[in-house]
Specification:
Layout: H1 4-7, H2 14-22, H3 24-48, H4 53-79, H5 92-97, H6 106-129, H7 135-163, H8 168-183, E1 185-186, E2 195-196
Parallel strand pairs: 1-2
Helix pairs in contact: 3-4, 4-7, 6-7, 6-8
Length: 199
């Protein structure tokens, strides 16, 4: 299977990297929020699709890992005197989810494909950010790459299993949707935000 970065239709814009380096407090706070949301998504799938044994195992494991990542980000924030606070959600996940089909099994297949894109984009951003960060944070982001890449692959494998046929057409559809979300101007900086509007 291709690497997360190669799976995506476009790289993270350099302007977003520049903004992330200027807004590291928001970056870490929203990263923590994203880890909680990823765990919640996995748990939601775990409870909704109880008949799927493979999904049950992979989503249980994913939820535990995402909560562990939340704990690690939160610990880093405390160490840096960054107070954890609520932030408005980025438009990114909703942008993708608006295109999910309503009827099963299309709903499950599309939800899993969206999960794959979110995980792949997270992985790509960790990798792009790491060389520009201080040693501690850079090492932490590199340490997340392996699990995030596995999450993306797990989501895609489960989507193929749920569809029972090729999902490449739906993957390509969401690849373009995801690119639009990343490349279009975004007024608000978040971990998954698009190209900064001011850039």
């Amino acid at each position: 299977m291709t690497s997360p970065a190669a799976f995506l239709a476009c790289p993270t814009p350099d302007a977003w990297i520049d903004m992330a380096l200027q807004q590291q407090e928001i970056l870490l706070t929203d990263h923590a929020n994203c880890e909680k949301k990823a765990a919640a998504t996995a748990l939601n799938l775990l409870f909704r699709y109880t008949f799927n044994d493979d999904l049950q195992y992979k989503m249980s494991r994913l939820a535990r890992e995402e909560l562990r990542h939340f704990e690690q980000v939160h610990a880093l924030m405390k160490k840096r005197d960054i107070k954890y606070r609520p932030l408005s959600a980025s438009r990114y996940a909703n942008w993708l989810r608006e295109h999910i089909r309503k009827e099963e099994p299309g709903r499950l297949v599309d939800t899993l494909i969206v999960g794959a894109f979110i995980e792949a984009r997270s992985c790509e951003r960790f990798e792009k950010l790491a060389p520009h960060l201080d040693e501690e944070l850079g090492k932490f982001y590199v340490s997340l790459l392996k699990s995030e890449a596995r999450h993306y692959r797990d989501y895609l494998a489960l989507a193929e299993e749920a569809a029972g046929e090729s999902i490449e057409e739906r993957v390509e559809y969401f690849r373009q949707v995801e690119r639009d979300a990343i490349e279009s101007p975004d007024e608000e900086f978040r971990f998954h935000s698009g190209s900064p509007a001011a850039a």
